[in-house]
Amino acid sequence: MPMTTPIPFNVFSSELLPDETVHWTGRPNAAVIFHKEDWAVVPFSMLWGGFAIFWFLGASGIANFWTNRPDKTFQWFGVVWGTPFVLVGQYMIWGRFVYN
Fold it and tell me: Hey, where are the domains in the chain?
């Protein structure tokens, strides 16, 4: 990665109000992917996403986890109700890395 020289502080002085100051210039470290708060977010997102998919498959009738009946009828209610939860779970697992 090429080294870049930081922008001098006085470049922005004409844009600042009298009581404002520049505290930092440059770029954040692009190599940092995980942050401190991710230690709680990652396990929660995996639990949310995993359970949402498990519930979606069972409630929609695609997979029958709770009984051994051969009746595996497709349930639209399970699809309509479960889809937002699955989408939120997938965003928490993958989307926040792609979106940022």
Answer: 35-99
